[in-house]
Specification:
about 0% strand; mainly alpha; 434 Repressor (Amino-terminal Domain); Lambda_DNA-bd_dom_sf
Length: about 80
């Protein structure tokens, strides 16, 4: 994953929100959101999923995926 801190900060800027607001919306802790903003840490898989669930429009951006290069997706039933 490319520089998560840069991406996280651009998402905050684009959504016009603070790390505190991000934590309220996504369910990650305020400390984690602040740490991501300053580059102290990167998210665990669980927190990455929370961020993506809260802001699905950024999924490809966060994961460095190009939609044109993705094969057709398969959705499995549980």
């Amino acid at each position: 994953m490319k520089d998560f801190t840069t991406k996280f900060n651009l998402i905050l800027k684009n959504e016009d929100m603070t790390p505190t607001k991000m934590s309220e919306i996504s369910g990650i802790t305020r400390t984690a959101a602040s740490d991501y903003k300053i580059g102290r840490s990167i998210p665990s898989v669980q927190n990455l999923i929370k961020i993506i669930n809260a802001f699905p429009k950024y999924t490809l951006y966060i994961l460095d995926l190009d939609a044109r290069e993705l094969p057709q997706q398969t959705f499995l039933k549980n």
